[in-house]
Amino acid sequence: MEKRLKAMAQGLNRLMKYKKVSQNMIDFMRSTEVTANKKDSSYNQHMR
């Protein structure tokens, strides 16, 4: 799970470095949500 969260954060950081993205951003807030499925002991990560 930790590797996936790190990869997601790196991808978002790469996206923010694009000129068109950075010029059109006024402000930005990132949040990370991890949900757990108790039935099959799996996790699902979301980055918003």
Automatic annotation (TrEMBL):
<dbReference type="Pfam" id="PF01446">
    <property type="entry name" value="Rep_1"/>
</dbReference>
<dbReference type="GO" id="GO:0003677">
    <property type="term" value="F:DNA binding"/>
</dbReference>
<comment type="similarity">
    <text>Belongs to the Gram-positive plasmids replication protein type 1 family.</text>
</comment>
<dbReference type="GO" id="GO:0006260">
    <property type="term" value="P:DNA replication"/>
</dbReference>
<dbReference type="InterPro" id="IPR000989">
    <property type="entry name" value="Rep"/>
</dbReference>
<protein>
    <submittedName>
        <fullName>Uncharacterized protein</fullName>
    </submittedName>
</protein>
<keyword id="KW-0235">DNA replication</keyword>
